[in-house]
Amino acid sequence: MNDFRGRVAVVTGGASGIGLALARRFAAEGMKVLIADIEESALNAAVRSLADEGAEAAGERCDVADHAQVETLADSAYSRFGAVHILANNAGVGSAPGAAWRQSHADWKWVLGVNLWGAINGVRAFMPRMIEQDTEGHIVNTASLAGLMAMPFGAPYQVSKFGVVALSESIYYELAATGSKLRVSVLCPAWVKTNILTSMRNRPAELANPEETEIPGEWLQAFSATIDAGLAPETVAGHVMDAIREERLYIWTHPEFKDAVAARHSNIVEGRNPDAARMLAALAKRS
Predict the structure, then answer these.
(1) pLDDT confidence of residue 238
(2) Is residue 171 helix, strand or coil?
(3) Strands 86-89, 137-142: parallel, antiparallel or unpaired by DSSP?
(4) Distance CA 33, CA 229 (A)
(5) Of the listed 78, 157, 172, 173, which one is catalytic?
(6) What gap in Å lies between CA 176 and CA 172, rounded to an integer?
(7) Which class for 161: exposed (0-12), middle (13-18), buried (19 or more C-beta within 10 A)?
């Protein structure tokens, strides 16, 4: 896909971070943009900022974990613009670290609901209509480096992101099998300067733990420093645009981690156990 002027993009989680950078980049390419986000004040501010920059932009509050709300978002997009050419299933949350068996049912439900079901709901609500348009188009699903290699003490997030990678790969093959003009990419960034560590601000009350788990101070300090030194969201948006133009499935933003992902795949093929001691030592050094 190379012709963007006058086309339409929908971005979930579009009020901040990578989502807002994508919305700005799409608008800069001449696209009309519909931003969806659960945080209404940030959503309104994002739409105003895009409008001030000369973009044709609109916003809609949407909890992507709720399939009915995502269906309503798709209805709104088609009612307003008549078509959708790029869908960025970008909304995502993080969670406090902990062993998989100590994460509560609410922890699992919240993270999988937003990160994985959000992408699934977007695919189900938008893709049939986008395919029926019979025009060039692109789906961008935001996963993570955590969708390509696992680490300890973050199972809900990593399970959700592995699922997004698998979803995207399945769609890639299915689009090829059906001869669709639609394409798909999966974004797998490592550290990006966003506010993901404060995701709890948008956690629904019904999915809160009786005693909310906070990120331990030493972990918070280490991860905050790493994220603050991460890639600018605008840089990530540039990688996404390149992938859309080149019709690439996998979007790498941190090639320095390719060896680690290759080592994981080699362990699988060769039947070797991962080096747990090395991983734990690396995490201890980071914290």
Answers:
(1) 98
(2) helix
(3) parallel
(4) 29
(5) 157
(6) 6
(7) buried
Q: pLDDT band for position 218 (50/70/90)?
A: low
- For residue 151, how many other CB atoms are within 10 A of its CB? 15
157 in catalytic set: yes
User: Rounded CA gap, 3 and 167, in Å?
Assistant: 26
Percent of the chain beyond pLDDT 90?
82
Angle between helices 40-52 and 17-28 (to 10 degrees): 20
pLDDT confidence of residue 44: 98
pLDDT band for position 226 (cuts 50, 70, 90): confident
Strands annotated E in the chain: 8-12, 32-37, 57-61, 86-89, 137-142, 182-188, 250-252
CA distance 136 to 138: 7
Q: Which CATH architecture has domain 8-286?
A: 3-Layer(aba) Sandwich (3.40)
Cβ contact 85:8 at 8 Å: yes
pLDDT in tens, 78-119: 999 999 999 999 999 998 788 999 999 999 999 999 999 999
The residue extents of the domains of the chain are: 8-286
* Of residues 87 and 216, more confidently modeled: 87
Rg of the chain, C-alpha, whole Å: 19
Q: Are 143 and 161 in contact (CB under 8 A)?
A: yes
Q: Measured between alpha carbons, how far is 272 from 9 in angstroms, rounded to an integer? A: 43
- Spatial neighbors of 147 by CB under 8 A, at least 6 apart, are 158, 161, 162, 163, 164, 165, 186, 188
In the sheet that holds 57-61, the strands lie side by side as 57-61, 32-37, 8-12, 86-89, 137-142, 182-188, 250-252
- DSSP secondary structure, 6-18, as one string: T-EEEEETTTSHH
Distance of alpha carbon 244 from the chain centroid: 15
Write the CB contacts of 60 (distance below 8 Å, at least 6 apart in sequence): 34, 35, 36, 43, 72, 73, 76
